[in-house]
């Protein structure tokens, strides 16, 4: 039997993307990634979007930790955030080893981490959340750490704030916390996906001319310069957090939708109010806003909700029973040949053959702008948190495998 | 000699457009047009943009007051605002007549008011401000009222809030006032045009696809629904009013410019934060924002300031000495054949032959978007208030004359 020094230890996990409905924007501590306000997100199904990460370690590996993302070696030493996550995880492992000398000394071995997204980074989806969640979950599994997802969220948060919300499925809150060391700034499940599995999400991928201000930089510009920012963080968001948790508990889609849309708008308002101003939404985004309001108006109830992150892509939430009204109408506008309709959730719209809402009742200019400006869709739904899998990206002997 | 009953009494005035640098958005009393916050504007030269209005009255006119705008008879009875202005002015005239019985009883005669703008309504400029200011000034002149422009602003305000600021030239504040009856909600001159005559304004007229929410409706939506609105009205604007008045007093363009741009952004942020959200700026507007920030960055000092009203048009303020840097750069982008360069202020840029800022230092996409999206320019400057003129739009015998 090989000594523990020669073995290659491996653990592999998938992790999901999450899309916030109450937005995280602004840090009160940039090193610890402590937010100025709580946030809440829906975890999206990994049938559509997921990061797959293998964490491995061995006494035989060359001395330094390495990270390979989508086939490319990363300069791990230049990423303080990755180093912070690894360092915390290793310290937890070390504590286990100190308490039980029979455990192999994995904390002393170099790590080899390999990660792949199943979606293009260019799609403008927040891949860092899934990436850091997968990294933390995979290393924690490799190290056989006893910490709960909630406890691990403290570590993932240091990689990318929103990553802490990707450690759980369903409906996840990230509590801002009050302690200066951030130990109470944690993610927690508000409700599992099974509580409200009917929640669908349709992403309209808008070809951005150019990446605008990166969110890490943008949010601190807002914190430092917006005259309206403090009002959102201190007064508006706490009320909305309470209200949307109630809406989720009650599966009250109209309330969930209105709070979601309003908070997206308020978030982008604080960006516009920054100095210099930050614009993430463009005319295509505005057309998606118009479309959703038009659909809701024509249907006579709130069946769809838009939300926009730090980019022009629209994410439209709706319930499965309203697929025809929402996805069907979007499909009629964009045409069935738009890339993405044939994804993992195709069955949900397979029977949808007509626009749920007659297109002549939708603002005609919005229709034209969307037709020209949306390059692909991602049809997905609420989903589960990270899943342990056996499709390792590192072989038994330590070589990187392409999935 | 004809009896006073048979005579046609006439007074004619021109009135200017004004463009706010601290925006008026929101009424605390919709009937009296009382604003939620003070505002401040620059009166633009009537060499470029003006309303010409003749107020006339005669005992021989048919019994009802009439109003003719740009050649078209208006239904005066359906315009509560016009009726409110006329009623106030007539009451003031009546008071004069009651005190001096030798005065002709003009307050008893029907009014015939004829008004023309020298710019297309379609240009998206706030013609109602100039229109109501001209109406009030012309009728006040007809009635030989002793009230000062500040006192008349109380009347014009009831026609259109921002009209009160068009009764004076230069730099004009509209104080929100505190009294419930609005009697202290008045416009006053902060500084005459002659205090800082170097102020130029370049309007980029953006072909709006479609008129968005009218401002009267939009502002009350914001008051009623925006979570951020109260913060702007109560805290942000009072500080900015004080700061920009200091900047104007000191002719400090960089301060004037930054406050102007920030307040435009904050105003549009509260629109976006409204429910449903209101968008007045589009991708062309955003390109103008980018252009101004790029020019200021390349020049290394703040030479230009943008501001946007309830529409996509950009108004860019700058000082005459920086014409080459600002107007010259815009001219290089749009081309010399863009409609409007050959206006009343052509002499100010006649010697400008090259872009002040090399176009390869400006965001290339902003350049393209502006080139495609700006349909005409209006090159103008700070100017005087209403002027009494003899070019009547009503003949001595009461017929409407086309100017």
From TrEMBL, chains A, B:
Coiled coil regions in record: none
Taxonomic lineage of the native organism: Eukaryota, Fungi, Dikarya, Ascomycota, Pezizomycotina
Pfam families xref list: MDD_C, MVD-like_N
Keywords (A to Z) from UniProt: ATP-binding, Lipid biosynthesis, Lipid metabolism, Lyase, Nucleotide-binding, Steroid biosynthesis, Steroid metabolism, Sterol biosynthesis, Sterol metabolism
Protein name: Diphosphomevalonate decarboxylase
Pathway: Isoprenoid biosynthesis; isopentenyl diphosphate biosynthesis via mevalonate pathway; isopentenyl diphosphate from (R)-mevalonate: step 3/3
Gene Ontology molecular function: ATP binding; diphosphomevalonate decarboxylase activity
Catalytic activity: (R)-5-diphosphomevalonate + ATP = isopentenyl diphosphate + ADP + phosphate + CO2
NCBIfam families: mevDPdecarb (TIGR01240)
All copies of domain Diphosphomevalonate decarboxylase-like N-terminal, residue ranges: 15-187
Family, as annotated: Belongs to the diphosphomevalonate decarboxylase family.
GO BP terms: isopentenyl diphosphate biosynthetic process, mevalonate pathway; sterol biosynthetic process
């Amino acid at each position: 039997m090989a000594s523990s020094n020669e073995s290659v230890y491996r653990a592999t996990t998938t992790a999901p993307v999450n899309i916030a409905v109450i937005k995280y924007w602004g840090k009160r501590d940039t090193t610890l990634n402590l937010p100025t306000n709580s946030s809440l997100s829906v975890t999206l199904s990994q049938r559509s979007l997921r990061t797959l990460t293998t964490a491995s370690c061995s006494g035989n590996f060359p001395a330094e930790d390495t990270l390979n993302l989508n086939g490319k070696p990363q300069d791990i030493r230049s990423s303080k955030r990755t180093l912070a996550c690894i360092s915390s995880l290793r310290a937890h492992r070390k504590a286990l080893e100190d308490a039980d000398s029979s455990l192999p000394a994995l904390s002393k071995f170099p790590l080899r981490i390999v990660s792949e997204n199943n979606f293009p980074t260019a799609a403008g989806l927040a891949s860092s959340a899934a990436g850091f969640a997968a990294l933390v979950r995979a290393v924690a599994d490799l190290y056989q750490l006893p910490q709960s997802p909630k406890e691990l969220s403290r570590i993932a948060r240091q990689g990318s704030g929103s990553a802490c919300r990707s450690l759980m499925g369903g409906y996840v809150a990230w509590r801002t916390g009050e302690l200066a060391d951030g130990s109470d700034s944690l993610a927690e499940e508000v409700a599992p996906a099974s509580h409200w599995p009917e929640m669908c999400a349709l992403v309209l991928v808008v070809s951005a001319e150019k990446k605008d201000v990166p969110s890490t930089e943008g949010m601190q510009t807002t914190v430092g310069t917006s005259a309206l920012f403090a009002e959102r963080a201190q007064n508006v968001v706490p009320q909305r957090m309470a209200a949307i948790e109630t809406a989720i508990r009650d599966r009250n889609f109209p309330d969930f939708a209105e709070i979601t849309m309003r908070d997206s708008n308020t978030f982008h308002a604080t960006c516009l109010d920054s100095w210099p101003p930050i614009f993430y939404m463009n005319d295509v985004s505005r057309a998606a806003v118009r479309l959703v309001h038009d659909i809701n108006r024509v249907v006579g109830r709130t069946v769809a909700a838009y939300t926009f992150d730090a980019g022009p892509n629209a994410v439209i939430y709706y319930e499965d029973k309203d697929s025809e009204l929402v996805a069907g109408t979007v499909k009629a506008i964009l045409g069935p040949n738009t890339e993405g309709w044939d994804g993992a959730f195709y069955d949900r719209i397979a029977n949808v053959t007509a626009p749920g809402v007659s297109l002549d009742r939708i603002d005609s200019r919005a229709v034209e702008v969307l037709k020209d400006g949306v390059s692909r869709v991602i049809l997905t739904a609420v989903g589960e948190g990270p899943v342990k899998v056996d499709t390792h990206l590192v072989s038994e002997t330590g070589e990187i495998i392409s999935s």
